[in-house]
Design goal:
56% helix, MREG protein, mainly alpha, Melanoregulin, elongated
Length: 175
């Protein structure tokens, strides 16, 4: 291959982009680097250093897949509630968090943390093993700015109620 060919490494670039994408799909504009991103990235790095036929590689590959699927499911739950609240066209942009995202009002920070913690403790919108993601702090801040945070919490409580016995949220919404 010639070094003058701009398409020579196209496949390699796509594969690298897929591996570097830590949330769900290549070129995910909502990507931000947070603690949970670094955990996933480190898992990918370790997996890529292992022999693909090894048991360790298979286990890490499964863990990476599971973590990505869990993130997709949580995002889907948030999007579902936002759409039910009337934010059909805005749901994706409300969930979009990048390195350029800022908290709209520093006074909202403690309220956003409280609501996020309350969502975690009193609903099953997050799986039981989920570590709270900074990403959703930005989303709650946006909901506070739109005066929709309380309605979001009420809807999350209705759709994903906390069940006795520690039932998991990934069982889906209650009818």
């Amino acid at each position: 291959l010639s070094n003058n060919n701009p398409y020579a490494s196209f496949g390699a670039t796509l594969a690298r982009d897929e591996e570097q994408n830590l949330w769900s799909t290549p070129h995910d504009v909502t990507h931000t680097e947070a603690d949970d991103d670094r955990v996933l990235y480190n898992m990918i790095v370790v997996r890529n250093q292992l022999d693909k036929d090894s048991e360790e590689w298979q286990k890490l590959n499964y863990d990476i897949y599971t973590l990505r699927q869990t993130r997709k499911e949580v995002r889907s739950r948030w999007k579902h509630i936002l759409e039910d609240l009337g934010f059909q066209k805005e749901a994706d942009s409300l969930l979009s968090v990048t390195k350029l995202s800022i908290i709209s009002d520093s006074q909202n920070m403690s309220k956003a943390r409280d609501i996020l913690l309350k969502l975690s403790e009193e609903t099953n919108i997050f799986p039981t093993s989920w570590e709270l993601s900074e990403r959703y702090l930005f989303v709650v801040d946006r909901l506070i700015a739109l005066d929709a945070a309380d309605e979001f919490f009420q809807m999350a409580s209705a759709v994903y109620p906390k069940r006795p016995g520690g039932d998991r949220a990934d069982e889906g919404p209650r009818p």
